[in-house]
Amino acid sequence: MTYTYIELKDETGNLVGIGRSDGAFIPTDPANSDYQAYLATLAANSAPQA
Amino acid sequence: MSRAQLTSTTQQDSGGAVAPFLAGKNKIINGDFAINQRGFTSTTSSGIYNFDRWVGYSSGGTVTYSSQNFTLGSAPVAGYESANYLQIATTGQSAAGDDTLLDQKIESVRTFAGQTVTYSFWAKATSGTPSVALEIYQIFGTGGSPSGEVDTYGGKVTLSTSWARYFITTTIPSIAGKTIGTDANSSFIGARLWLSAGSNYNGRSGSLGIQNSTMQFWGLQLEAGSVATPFTTASNTLQGELALAQRYYQQNRGQGTAYASNGIGGPLTFPVQMRTTPTMSIVNNQLRQTNSGGTTTPSPNFVFGVDATGCTYIFASSFSTSLSTGSSCSYDFVYIASAEL
Fold first, then answer.
1. CA distance A50 to chain B (A)
2. Are B36 and B51 spatial neighbours (Cβ–Cβ below 8 Å)?
3. For B239-245, which contacts have Cβ atoms below 8 Å and span 24 or more sequence positions?
4. CB distance A26–B339 less than 8 Å?
5. Nearest CA in chain B to A7
6. Could you give the C-alpha distances from B336 to A14, A36, B35, B219, B339, in angstroms and in order?
7. How far apart are CA B269 and CA B252, in angstroms?
8. What one-character-per-residue DSSP string does B73-96 give?
């Protein structure tokens, strides 16, 4: 399953969570496995392409 | 010869290393597939949870995980008239990286560390005599500098076309000298059945090989010791099993009052505290003004004020229909909270 993500911020610009393309809200909790998957996607997308 | 040696290749109906019907001996939750909060029927996607706590992973070909119903009187254990079993059909695999897996993650890497364990299950193949391999993997969590994953091949068994109970005894490595991550409740062990494994996975699957076949499973149990005692679920009660599963996933109804056109306050307390802060969503078309027939579909950009115990508010950049506000404007909804490992 491949998702896209958006950062959700409050009115002062603070990150409050991650929105996933299936409509789910992912908290920025490092023990949350969906947040881990988001971070892994972020790292993969920012890694230099071979 | 010890009792364990005498009985190590035979199911024990009268008790083995632990009392045969003791709640908590089975670390597998929902081993009889009675809990199905997701309403799972069938999927061909990898990484999708099916029955509660169970997830299938696959690569290559087409792998179909499906819920099946026992015909009354046909369940494999006399006196345990279970309703469901899991069928996994693999077709079209051939590559070295192809695989089919059935997996359950068990919280805390301390579970059974350094102990001999026995994994047992009922299974059958619809044709042929395919094999199934067991792997136990240890994940030391997140945060800080946790130790790396440890994978242990446990053994394999060969199925027939009739329901039979199979068991594999192995030893889970000690965690002495290892480091567990600092994030609470993030470590776990995994009990993984390999149903098909390309050559890339020979070491982890006992050189199982590619198997394009259909297999059926029920009554899975992981317990301490070298004897497969009679099957029980982890809690030994239906309600207890639901509560155990809800620590990781729950789909329930919540209610709150609209405090703005795009916010609902005071929605809910989870019936069971979850493992960690869960991923949240509202089921489509399941947000509505109480006592009103209408539904409001939330926008995807919503925020939950959530922790492991519950949720204090829901806020959205917009709802498809603005909420009515005021003390009498109560809204109810169906939510999903997921804190799977």
1. 21
2. yes
3. B240/B23, B241/B29, B241/B30, B241/B34, B241/B35, B242/B35, B242/B37, B243/B271, B243/B272, B244/B29, B244/B30, B245/B29, B245/B30, B245/B35, B245/B37, B245/B52, B245/B53
4. no
5. B301
6. 25, 19, 15, 27, 10
7. 10
8. T--SSTT----EEEEEEEES--ST
| pTM given for the model | 0.92
H or E segment to which residue B121 belongs = strand B116-125
CB neighbours of residue B55 within 10 Å: 20
Please check whether residue B167 is in contact with residue B28, taking contact to mean a CB–CB distance below 8 angstroms. Answer: no
Q: Element (H or E) spanning B5, and its range?
A: helix B3-7
Instruction: Say which of A24, A27, A35 has its CB closest to residue B281.
Output: A24
User: What does the angle CA B258 – CA B272 – CA B245 come to, to the nearest 5 degrees?
Assistant: 120
CB contacts under 8 A, A 19-38 vs B, are: 19-27, 29-36
CB within 8 A of B259, min separation 6: which ones? B265, B313, B325
ipTM of the complex: 0.92
The CA distance from B64 to B42, in Å, is: 7
- Tens of pLDDT along chain B (341 residues) come to 344 444 444 455 444 455 667 788 999 999 999 999 999 999 999 999 999 999 999 999 999 999 999 999 888 887 788 999 999 999 999 999 999 999 999 999 999 999 999 999 999 999 999 999 999 999 999 999 999 999 999 999 999 999 999 999 999 999 999 999 999 999 999 999 999 999 999 999 999 999 999 999 999 999 999 999 999 999 999 999 999 999 999 999 999 998 888 889 987 999 999 999 999 999 877 888 887 767 777 766 789 999 999 999 998 877 777 888 766 788 899 999 999 99
Q: Which residues are paired to B315 by β-bridges?
A: B263, B303
Facing A32 at nearest CB: one of B48, B277, B303: B277
A vs B: CB pairs below 8 A:
67
Q: Closest to B276 (Cβ–Cβ): which among A19, A23, A32?
A: A32
